[in-house]
């Protein structure tokens, strides 16, 4: 599932200076992560950015986890 989510994160030198964005849109991963970090809920972000989907938020969190080297170990 994570691999499919990560496909939503795109980089293109012609879009936002090559910074990671969502689905080729002009919305940077860092913008949405910043909103979440400031206390906005996922629901609030999705209400404000109606072109985003719930999987976009999950994709950004998975991307951030991967960048920080966080390993996910499934509980038995």
Automatic annotation (TrEMBL):
Gene3D superfamilies: Winged helix-like DNA-binding domain superfamily/Winged helix DNA-binding domain. InterPro entries: DUF433, Homeodomain-like_sf, WH-like_DNA-bd_sf. This is DUF433 domain-containing protein. It comes from Glycocaulis albus. SUPFAM superfamilies: Homeodomain-like (SSF46689).
């Amino acid at each position: 599932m994570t691999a499919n989510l990560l496909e939503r994160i795109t980089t293109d030198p012609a879009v936002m200076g090559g910074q990671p964005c969502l689905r080729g849109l002009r919305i940077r991963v860092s913008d949405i992560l910043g909103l979440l970090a400031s206390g906005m809920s996922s629901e609030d972000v999705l209400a404000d950015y109606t072109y985003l989907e719930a999987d976009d938020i999950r994709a950004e969190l998975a991307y951030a986890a991967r960048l920080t080297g966080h390993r996910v170990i499934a509980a038995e």
